[in-house]
Amino acid sequence: MLLVAGVALGSLVSSAQSESVLSNPASEAAYMPTFPVAFPAVAGAIREGRVVVLDTMLTEEELRAAREDVDALLKQGGSAFAANANQDTSVRRDSVVWITGQEAGVGPGLKHAVALLRGLAHKFAATPAYDKSVLWVQSAAQLACYAGDSQAHYAPHLDASTDSVWTLGLSAWLRARAYRERTITAILYLNDKEWDEDAVGGCLRCHVPSSLSSEAGHGAIASGGGGSALCEKKQHARSRDGDAIAAAPAAAVEAATAAAIPAGASAGDVATAGAASATAIPPAAAAAAAAAAAAAAAAATTNINNVSIPMPTTQQDVAPRGGRLVLFDSAAILHEVLPSHNKGGQRVALTVWVSDRRDR
Predict the structure, then answer these.
(1) Where do the domains of the chain lie?
(2) pTM for the complete prediction?
(3) Span 3-257+305-356: which CATH code?
(4) Cα gap 201→51, rounded to integer Å
């Protein structure tokens, strides 16, 4: 069964309608701060299937204020946070609270972080990559806390439902509208800026298309940096294996991924197209070619935790450093949260989903 937002879809559809109602058009989420982001390049990278990592989206003062507000909520315990509604702790083990920024007791630092995330929808709506989309953004952001007990985690999942009405059934398909509409996942980390993933883990593991990760400079992860087309500030990001993720040059962001298999096509389709110009193929060779094409097509599908992705994937880990913003296509990037070993500490992530209501 497909996992959406970390649990079996059937157990979530009852809450989908209320989430859909509590949304606003992107135009209503405009926020005043100047974003240090080249949004057309970022939007293009997301559309290509890349994971975009942008650091220092918050100043040190803003990050400190937001973390203090989170700490204040954590001190309230069960009166603020609730264990995730999912009962299967093998899938997801975190505590969450939904924040609009209008609640009494939520400090200005956290309110700013929520408004910043929601404001992204307004920025993306003005880019060529989303000019034909009808973008909406949910009214509340999800604040998720994972205890540093080496157990709290989130199994591999997609944030959007990609199942057809024939797979789900009409009733479930209609109730899952909010999950079908999700198009951009935006995660802002409110942890220590010097988070040491080698010591405490807790990375976001993204299963990105191998065709992108094989490009020079870890092309599957577009990182804002000096000389990057993505961000105006000097940024830095690092992969789990310790290699520096090169800042994506403008050419790499703007160019289409020529090596990637087109959306909806399999390796078998490519092989068939290549064989179409042949005048004659001996029967034995044709059978061998068919078998090879079938094997290639099977290899072009990755199945992780019962989620099928139509191409081979490579694992890329992103450390949850404070002030870091991670953006990706909600329906395309399979991802998971690895356990952290920060005894007595918390791994904190603030998430907003931007939805596309066009033809959904």
Answers:
(1) 3-257+305-356, 262-299
(2) 0.72
(3) 2.60.120.620
(4) 19
